[in-house]
Sequence to fold (190 residues):
Amino acid sequence: MSAAVGDTVTLPCTYPTGSGTTTMCWGRGPCPNSKCNNKIIWTDGSKVSWRKSDRYQLMGDIEEGNVTLTITGVTPDDAGTYCCRVEIPGIFNDQKKEINVKIREDAFVLGPSTSSTLNVTWTTNNERSYCSVFYTVVTLLVVLIILFGILLYRNRLHEKKMDDMFLTVSAISPGTLKAAQAVENVYMKI
Fold:
């Protein structure tokens, strides 16, 4: 889908607020592993805390999770990919949406510009990036190494206890055993 130069474009993005609101950002280009590249607007969960230009507005109810971006006075430079990133607490939990916008340069308007909502194609990036998969694998390897170390340590303690028991039993000399048997025999004969 596309919009004409001078139009107002609306890029949809919402998130559930059952657990409360959170910070979010809109940026230009694909969604990175964290935050937004080429930031154009930022919220603190209840209001816009930073914006690159007055052309970028969040007209929805931010506290209800409506962080839909409205761009007024669209220019050819507005074409491209936009990233909506909602920062959900936890590792790799952020909600990311990429929206591709095409601007038609052939539709210059002589009078006042028209306002339209652009029906855009958007994809939800639910797949983990290669970087996040790498961090997950590294984390699992570290946990496995720690568990292996704990098991090895416990095994060594068990072996040491067995060795100490063996040393205690083998420390008794044969002469000591014969003397103990002789004393025992004397008591038994009486």
